[in-house]
């Protein structure tokens, strides 16, 4: 590297470090530090350390914020949704990529419409009412799957199309059945795109709020974002926002996804920045 | 079933015609075996996305309320009501403004960050992971965090107060700054992903082209504008389209920060939809949903077509 290039490189690191302060670090610090302050201190919304540490904010959220129920609901919806979307999505992607039937092409296009078009909420409620699962977790789960399959189908079909079919054909000639070929050849090769797509999906499903607000009724079926919203709304009607408790709830709500991120961070960021998702 | 497939595939695969590419998959009757793989995804998408989507085209033109069990066709009455009350046109204007602001900010900021973090290395890996963190936060939570930062007595005004003391502007309390602030929170929340997409795009540009431009005497800006930016087309298309269409569907962040206020300055279409729904006017809510769909198509399709054409030219 030349001297000028090295100076430019150093400057870039400085810019990134300085920018990270207002962009990431201060918002995170504000969130964390105010979640362990008493109400009077937290309502000043400053970045100072608490004079009195209040870790029982979290137990308040646990009890009054219905956190354990909401956590179980979120897990019980997000994990099956992810499993169904990734499995059915890659199965369909293989079929769509390899079959040349016109009817398959039509089916593919129907499936990927949901990538761009916004879902219609009110008729969804109507349909769930007819099926008598309106307001239930089952109904919400089915809608989550139905509205998110398109993305996986789109990404994975493009991925399979770029794969040469020679290996599959050889396996078929050697006597492997379609399910075997799918399990032993297709699924493993789809792994990179499924990992990146899966993490993005789990983040958006975990944080999903709009459909939860319309489709889930009653505290028993609320997911974490819905629980957070109800908790924050309830706490703000009495006086001003209970920032201490709202922040404690945000911390607890985000914690599971941050833990997931810590495990897959390297491969996710690497995968995305190498173009695992293409336009 | 497995046996038939195998025999059929072998039979179909053996008489390979000369010339490339010999990759024609099994055809005709045997092609039916693809259906078991496609059906689960197809059925679920049709049942829980496409069917409601199609039904919306009917419900938008009905009187459907929470006060009666009868759903009756009423023509364009919902739309005339929405237009006459001023709700619809204002919501469209607010939504499109919001989407344009968010899209422009998103792509300028994310592309700048991508240029700063483009080169693969340890330091940049660290920064990429760090700048990705806001993506993990739910939009709702992002809304709460930033409404705290933007409070009149919050940290942002505190920082500005260092330079001009007693600064207590209510960012979310004035129409224009509220709309820009909420769009900014949207940008902040998603920038991590868009940045990585741009990094992928930048790294896909052949190094020789950038090098050639340098040798021809182009400075950093010219290299960026005439070479990198032109060849960035696929990543640009993806990011512009996703950030624009995503912003047309904005809801969570607005609901967490301003709930559509002050006045109706941030009442995007989904907020208007939620208000109609909460008031028991399900038919009118469906009409607003149809408007969002039409906006996505009317603005999204030309946008995609334009950006795709640009890709070909580049």
From TrEMBL, chain A:
It holds the Pfam family BPD_transp_1. It comes from the Bacteria. The keyword Membrane applies. The keyword Nucleotidyltransferase does not apply. One of its GO terms (biological process) is transmembrane transport. Keywords: Cell membrane, Membrane, Transmembrane, Transmembrane helix, Transport. It is a multi-pass membrane protein. The chain crosses the membrane at residues 12-33, 70-94, 106-126, 138-160, 181-203, 243-264. Residues 71-264 form the ABC transmembrane type-1 domain. It is found in: Cell membrane. Coiled coil: none annotated. InterPro entries: MetI-like (IPR000515), MetI-like_sf (IPR035906). GO terms for cellular component: plasma membrane. Belongs to the binding-protein-dependent transport system permease family. This is Carbohydrate ABC transporter permease. It comes from Jiangella anatolica.
Automatic annotation (TrEMBL), chain B:
It comes from the Bacteria. Keywords: Cell membrane, Membrane, Transmembrane, Transmembrane helix, Transport. PROSITE patterns: ABC_TM1. The chain crosses the membrane at residues 32-51, 96-117, 129-149, 231-251, 281-307. One of its GO terms (biological process) is transmembrane transport. One of its GO terms (cellular component) is plasma membrane. InterPro entries: ABC_transporter_permease (IPR051393), MetI-like (IPR000515), MetI-like_sf (IPR035906). Residues 92-303 form the ABC transmembrane type-1 domain. It holds the Pfam family BPD_transp_1. The keyword Cell membrane applies. Residues 15-24 have a biased composition (Pro residues). It is found in: Cell membrane. Residues 1-25 are annotated as: Disordered. It is a multi-pass membrane protein. Belongs to the binding-protein-dependent transport system permease family. This is ABC transporter permease.
């Amino acid at each position: 590297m030349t001297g000028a290039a090295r100076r430019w490189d150093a400057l870039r690191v400085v810019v990134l470090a300085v920018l990270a302060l207002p962009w990431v670090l201060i918002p995170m610090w504000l969130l964390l530090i105010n979640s362990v302050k008493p109400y009077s201190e937290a309502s000043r919304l400053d970045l100072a350390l608490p004079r009195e540490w209040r870790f029982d904010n979290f137990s308040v959220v646990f009890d009054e914020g219905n956190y354990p129920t909401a956590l179980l609901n979120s897990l019980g919806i997000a994990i099956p949704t992810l499993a169904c979307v990734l499995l059915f999505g890659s199965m369909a992607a293989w079929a769509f990529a390899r079959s040349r039937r016109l009817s398959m092409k039509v089916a593919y296009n129907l499936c990927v419409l949901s990538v761009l078009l916004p879902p219609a909420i009110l008729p969804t409620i109507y349909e769930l009412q007819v099926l008598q699962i309106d307001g239930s977790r089952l109904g919400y789960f089915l809608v989550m799957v139905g509205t998110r399959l398109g993305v996986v189908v789109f990404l994975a079909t493009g991925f399979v199309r770029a794969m040469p079919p020679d290996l599959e054909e050889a396996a078929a000639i050697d006597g492997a059945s379609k399910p075997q070929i799918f399990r032993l050849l297709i699924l493993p090769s789809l792994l990179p795109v499924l990992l990146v797509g899966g993490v993005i999906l789990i983040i958006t499903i975990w944080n999903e709020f709009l459909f939860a607000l319309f489709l889930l009724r009653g505290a028993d079926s609320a997911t974490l974002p819905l629980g957070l919203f109800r908790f924050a709304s309830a706490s703000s009607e009495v006086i001003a926002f209970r920032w201490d408790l709202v922040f404690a709830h945000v911390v607890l709500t985000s914690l599971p996804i941050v833990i997931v991120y810590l495990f897959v961070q390297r491969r996710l960021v690497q995968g995305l920045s190498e173009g695992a998702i293409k336009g | 079933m497995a046996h038939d497939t195998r025999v059929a595939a072998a039979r179909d695969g053996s008489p390979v015609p000369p010339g490339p590419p010999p990759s024609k998959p099994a055809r005709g009757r045997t092609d039916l075996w693809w259906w078991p793989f496609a059906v689960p995804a197809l059925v679920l998408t049709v049942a829980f996305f496409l069917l409601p989507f199609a039904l919306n085209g009917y419900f938008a033109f009905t009187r459907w309320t929470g006060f009666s069990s009868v759903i009756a066709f009423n023509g364009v009455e919902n739309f005339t009501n929405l237009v006459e009350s001023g709700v619809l046109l204002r919501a469209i204007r607010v939504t499109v403004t919001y989407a344009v602001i968010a899209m422009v900010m998103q792509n300028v900021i994310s592309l700048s960050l991508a240029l700063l973090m483009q080169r693969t290395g340890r330091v940049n890996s660290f920064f990429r992971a760090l700048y990705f963190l806001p993506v993990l936060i739910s939009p709702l939570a992002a809304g709460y965090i930033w409404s705290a930062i933007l409070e009149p007595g919050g940290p942002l005004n505190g920082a500005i107060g260092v330079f001009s003391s007693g600064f207590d502007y209510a960012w979310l309390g004035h129409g224009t700054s509220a709309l820009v602030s909420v769009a900014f929170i949207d940008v902040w929340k998603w920038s991590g992903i868009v940045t990585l997409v741009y990094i992928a795009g930048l790294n896909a540009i052949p190094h020789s082209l950038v090098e050639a431009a340098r040798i021809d005497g182009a400075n950093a800006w010219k290299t960026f504008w005439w070479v990198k930016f032109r060849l960035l087309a696929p990543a640009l298309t993806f990011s512009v389209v996703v950030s624009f269409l995503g912003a047309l569907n904005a809801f969570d962040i607005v609901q967490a920060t301003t709930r559509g206020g002050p006045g109706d300055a941030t009442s995007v279409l989904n907020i208007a939809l939620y208000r109609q729904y909460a008031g028991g006017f399900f038919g009118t809510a469906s009409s607003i949903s149809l408007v969002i769909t039409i906006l996505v198509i009317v603005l999204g399709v030309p946008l995609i077509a334009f950006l795709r054409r640009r890709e070909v030219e580049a």
